[in-house]
Specification:
This protein is an alpha+beta fold and about 120 residues long. The protein has a single domain, classed as MHC class I-like antigen recognition-like (Murine Class I Major Histocompatibility Complex, H2-DB, Chain A, domain 1, 2-Layer Sandwich), CATH 3.30.500. The protein has three helices and four strands. It has a four-stranded antiparallel sheet. Helix 2 runs antiparallel to helix 3. One of its GO terms (cellular component) is extracellular space. Keywords: Glycoprotein, Membrane, Receptor, Transmembrane, Transmembrane helix.
Length: about 120
């Protein structure tokens, strides 16, 4: 059984700085990561693997999608956390449901995009 997992998100620190990430693992091993500051995909697979090289090359063929991902991680994700932080500062008993729903919907949208790219480029590892 093969397993390709994606993890994305952002962290907002108390000093106002933020860190965004998108990481892909293949069978539990780091495979690819998205370098948010310069909007590039980087291989994380140990050694020189043809599949990791292929995946990195294919993902870099979609500059508009890559920029959209960068914007989502740098701006949208961070804005959601800032809004939630401001909201919980005013009313700490409020539900986290809107934040969780927004992050889940964003994750599904990006996962759908990744699966679509994978299938449109041949779909075989």
């Amino acid at each position: 059984t093969q397993s390709l997992c994606c993890r994305l998100g952002c962290c907002l620190f108390p000093n106002g700085t933020a860190y965004s990430f998108y990481e892909v693992t293949l069978n539990g091993t780091a495979f690819l990561s998205f370098h948010v500051p310069n909007a590039t995909w980087e291989r994380r697979w140990p050694g020189r693997d043809a599949v990791a090289t292929f995946a990195e090359r294919e993902l870099m063929k979609y500059p508009m999608t890559t920029r959209d991902l960068q914007h989502f991680l740098n701006t949208t994700c961070v804005d959601i956390l800032r809004a939630q932080s401001a909201w919980t500062g005013k009313q700490s008993s409020r539900s986290h449901a809107p934040l969780v729903l927004g992050l889940i919907l964003g994750s599904f949208a990006l996962l759908g995009m990744a699966v679509g790219i994978f299938l449109c480029t041949g779909g075989s590892c």
